[in-house]
């Protein structure tokens, strides 16, 4: 069995053990990712769960907000902080459809969140072991437990469909521009 946290014994957890509740919360994160998708944003959704209840929700909205920090995790954690009236999210879990980036991993450490469960790995920029290992870095004074793979197929299909669609749109745009240039000659 492989584990994202194999170098840090204190947070060693098998990646395959997910509960029915875990799946329920990830399904809500997927529904939020679909809202991002409908706005032509990269489809990523996240929820923060505390005591078995969702206390924060977010989806990626960087383009529509002109805000590079408006990642799903950031939005969900801001929402949770306000709802539980605390800047620390002790004993909470974040469910997110894609492995957190370095910015969001930093945020997770600052929030003192207990655990993150994500669906798909991000091999290019994932900070939970894929490209960087920032969630349980020994230099941090707080380590976040990370588990990967819950509903991975569904989330990676959604992401690839998005990027495929975006590539097709870009191609069509280029073609249209080329046609306009030709007709103006
Ligand atoms: Zn991020």
Describe this structure in words.
With 185 residues, this protein is an alpha/beta fold. The chain has five helices and five strands. The chain has a five-stranded mixed β-sheet with strand order 2-1-3-4-5. The N terminus is likely disordered. Bound molecules: zinc ion (ZN). Zinc ion binds next to helix 4.
Question: What characteristics describe this protein?
Answer:
single chain; 185 residues; alpha/beta; 5-stranded mixed β-sheet; disordered N terminus
Describe how the helices and strands are arranged.
Blueprint: H1 20-38, E1 45-50, E2 53-59, H2 62-65, H3 72-84, E3 92-98, H4 102-111, E4 115-120, E5 145-148, H5 152-184
Strand order of the largest sheet: 2-1-3-4-5
Structural class: alpha/beta
Small-molecule components bound: zinc ion
Give the total of beta strands: 5
- Sequence stretches where pLDDT stays below 50 over 5 or more residues: 1-12
Helix content: 40-55%
The radius of gyration is 18 Å
Query: SSE order, as H and E?
Result: HEEHHEHEEH
How many separate helices? Answer: 5
The CA-CA distance between the termini, in Å, is 63 Å
